[in-house]
Amino acid sequence: xxxxxxxxxxxxxxQAARLLAAFTDGKxxxxxxxDALLRSGVERQFEIIGEALSQACRVDPxxxxxxxxxxxxxxxxxRLIHGYASIADEVVxxxxxxxxPSLTMEVATLLAxxxxxx
Length: 118
Prior knowledge:
- There is one protein chain.
- This protein has one domain (6-111).
- It is 71% helix and 0% strand.
- It has six helices and no strands.
């Protein structure tokens, strides 16, 4: 099977980040806690981000140096998938608020071609 272009993975990450922003727009921690569907949607988009980033780094290992917390993002995806029972909702919400904005900006910068091409 031909190798997928790293930019396609970056687009997947950007789309998942947009969905996370849309899902949580106007929402508070209490809303997140009370809404199983919202929690499921948020976790799914984080899974997509982590998997897309993992695949992108396989195509372009240097990408890990251009995305802050790259390895932690991939590890978080693995924990969501394989250790789902041990994930605290507070951790997911904190990651959403504290780290998603910088990831969104870094991916947008990469897609805009402001860094070296993959």
